[in-house]
Task: inverse folding
């Protein structure tokens, strides 16, 4: 494992666009970097490219060992030779999102022509800005048209935004465990995470790097809370229940004092591990910037709240996937999306996968998801005469 | 409104028990104070007393203006003359829980014979310890037997614990929106709240009063998160949706910088208000102590995981109430409790109330709840020949 500090910008394969990017907020972002990884081979007809969009805290290391954590790619079980997203047939592109901290331009990047980081001066971005950065990369790779865009959670928001912003750029879009807008509850959880970061004594108004620290405690609290929302009550009960790591009687011993608040229950120990691992790889300002981009996300906003209008006349084939126990992006919202797509006369199929693993199901071993992804992509590819 | 500092112990009506309390952890707590309020009149036969147990952050001010916040009592709509819990017929007792911060002995209290506060030296307590403190008060009021014990959320845990610890002490028990154990998800949320407090720069290892501060930011983060769990997604959507307080374009303006993380969405503003109001009335060490008491709660633990054994032979009449949209203490767990009571051959009825207001429904205007509470209490009272 690489011992990269969470303050390091790191060195990741990337493309640089000296013309920058016009952001939705009106700011021109100069000198855009888009970090990315590809898997498989682009066909001679350049018609087999799939953009995979990562979730909030994911990155471009989809199907290979992560250079910083040493862990397998976040979707290694889904993407590879013979896998549901088959790199023998498809050419996969995954970028680190704009605003991220794995090599794409974001708050941890240096301001152009400066030795100063963006930090909290990084302009507010949107999901559409992320997609427009990806578009620039795709075009720079000589690809006129994608085969598909696939993503889960915030990656699914990007997939939907691709369909809305560039409806002629792809044959198919697969939004998984996602929604066409961020709900009040989603915004509420994001806000608690941000407040936890702001409350950290090492936050320093967002300029923590000047003190050679990161707001690790606040960021860990944010991650711990978010992690609960990624799982279901059933999954937490099955994995941990009320099991304790040490005898409750010890933990209740009078001399223990604050020790009674240590890692007593297994679920606490698990959450703390999740929190501490996260702060070693993720930037607090990226956390703020990206959560805010999610909060702004609402595909109906430009159409007076009429979601079908966002998809009017779309030629894209959609396959919407939800998970029955996902309470962060519930099936009911996916049904709302599917109804809107139907009203827009879009070609859409919908699969609700029965599982008790919650929102994170899209990352886990779910054979029904594998079958759905493989079936949809192969079906569209065969129909389109893809080699 | 009283301008009490969150550091003040305050002066509340209370009973002092110089013999103290033997806690489950083995510590003897000297000089127990139990703060309480009563409503209505104890009958000549002393047979009409109902103990109401408050929820986590509630207190004894059930049906009157709160002396510190100036707000109505937390269950004023339920308790009073002619109300579902009718003070013309019943004598109501509500204590501040052991470990609390409204006058009962807790971490903010002074150690006996000392000018030093307990703080983090306060011994770990359990729900049973809370109930045993209440029992002492009830007996000191000359009451041999209660008519009923009623409570929601953590108050429901206490009501169940009353039935298990003192099965001959009451005719009826009404646990509302609660569970016979704290789930992994419940523990997980509590742990995040505690970590938020520990991360606060004003925590000072739990001795914040020595610095004349309170860990207000961490405690507010804990409260904001907890508050989300008290509501349903539907309730948040209905109350706030994606409404913004200021123009998103302003919030996204480049010069705004950190301002884009201000109170932009109404739900954020609401949560921040909840957080800041809470830290003015609640003690951080009480937050830790009481959440831990909830975490330990598991009525089946003494019976090798067999919940029915906890209620074997109970003469108590139970009415279990749950709310369909409560995801913190879901109906499924109430059904599990009811099955255990049935297996124990207890007299039990069960009402699931259809509502989209989530866990907090027990505090809100729910006519079905009013009817259920009134109907059950009157039914048992009439059956028992209560005046």
Result:
């Amino acid at each position: 494992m690489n011992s990269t500090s969470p303050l390091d910008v790191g060195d990741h394969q990337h493309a640089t666009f000296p013309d920058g990017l016009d952001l939705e907020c009106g700011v021109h972002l100069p000198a855009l970097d888009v970090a990315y990884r590809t898997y498989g081979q682009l066909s001679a007809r350049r018609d087999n490219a799939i953009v995979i969009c990562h979730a909030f805290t994911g990155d471009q290391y989809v199907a290979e060992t992560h250079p910083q954590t040493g862990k397998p790619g976040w979707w290694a079980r889904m993407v590879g030779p013979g896998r549901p997203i088959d790199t023998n047939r498809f050419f996969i592109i995954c970028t680190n999102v704009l605003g991220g901290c794995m090599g794409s331009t974001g708050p941890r990047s240096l301001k152009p022509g400066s030795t100063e980081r963006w930090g909290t001066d990084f302009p507010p971005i949107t999901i559409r800005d992320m997609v427009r950065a990806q578009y620039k990369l795709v075009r720079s790779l000589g690809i006129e048209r994608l085969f598909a865009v696939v993503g889960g959670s915030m990656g699914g928001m990007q997939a939907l935004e691709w369909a809305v912003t560039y409806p002629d750029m792809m044959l198919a879009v697969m939004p998984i465990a996602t929604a066409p807008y961020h709900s009040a509850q989603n915004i509420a959880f994001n806000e608690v995470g941000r407040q936890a970061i702001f409350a950290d004594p090492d936050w320093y108004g967002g300029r923590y790097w000047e003190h050679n620290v990161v707001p690790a405690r606040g960021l860990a609290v944010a991650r711990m809370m978010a992690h609960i929302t990624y799982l279901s009550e059933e999954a937490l009960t099955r994995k941990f229940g009320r099991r304790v790591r040490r005898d409750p009687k010890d933990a209740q011993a009078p001399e223990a004092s604050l020790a009674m608040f240590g890692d007593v229950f297994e679920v606490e120990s698990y959450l703390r591990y999740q929190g501490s691992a996260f702060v070693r790889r993720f930037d607090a300002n990226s956390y703020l910037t990206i959560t805010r981009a999610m909060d702004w996300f609402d595909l109906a906003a430009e159409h007076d709240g009429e979601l079908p209008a966002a998809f009017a006349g779309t030629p894209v084939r959609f396959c919407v996937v939800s998970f029955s126990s996902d309470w962060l992006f519930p099936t009911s919202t996916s049904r709302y999306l599917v109804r809107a797509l139907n009203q827009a006369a879009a070609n859409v199929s919908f699969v609700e996968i029965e599982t008790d693993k919650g929102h994170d199901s899209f990352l886990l071993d779910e054979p029904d998801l594998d079958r759905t992804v493989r079936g949809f992509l192969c079906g569209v590819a065969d129909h389109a005469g893809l080699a």
About this structure: Chain B has two domains: 14-184+298-383, 187-289. Chain B has a mean pLDDT of 94. The first strand of chain B starts at residue 14 and ends at 17.
